[in-house]
Amino acid sequence: MSIPYLVRKKVNVNGGERKIRWYAVQKKLQERGGKTEEDVARLVAERSGFREGEVQGIMTEVASVVEKFLQEGYSVNLKGLGTFQVALTSPGADRPEDVMPGTVKVSRVYFIADRWLTRRIKKMKFIRIPLSRYFPKSMLSQEVIQAEEEQGDLSAE
Predict the structure, then answer these.
(1) Which residue ranges traverse the bilayer (predicted)?
(2) Across-strand partners of 155?
(3) How far apart are CA 147 and CA 132, in angstroms?
(4) Domain boundaries of the chain, sorted by first residue
(5) Nearest to 116, CA basis, from 83, 80, 78, 76
């Protein structure tokens, strides 16, 4: 499997100098939302022998239990996936006793991917989506156009 990417122009301001640079950016394979819990449940069911509805029920309960543990102040580690945590914030106070429960808020709930998951994903290969699909031909060199035509990359997705 390869992760598809596009090439985009960005302005890089480094040391006060504005410089236009080109960067790889991830191409989302969907318009909005990505894969859903139904997609995950379907694939887990295919791989495990459980029925899809059973997997969806378990996933719903896992989400509920993760929420419960986070509300109790625990972080939640799911081996092979990662850790869910809560970050708190409050206004600054002059004395410790002035930091009262009513002033404390959750600033964010965040996820840190399991290091092995991160390592596996970082080893993924990449494939550039043909430039001719999103740049006018006038911007491309003749070599790029020819190479993409030879590879059959000029057809629409």
Answers:
(1) none
(2) none
(3) 11
(4) 1-27+129-157, 33-73, 75-91+102-121
(5) 80
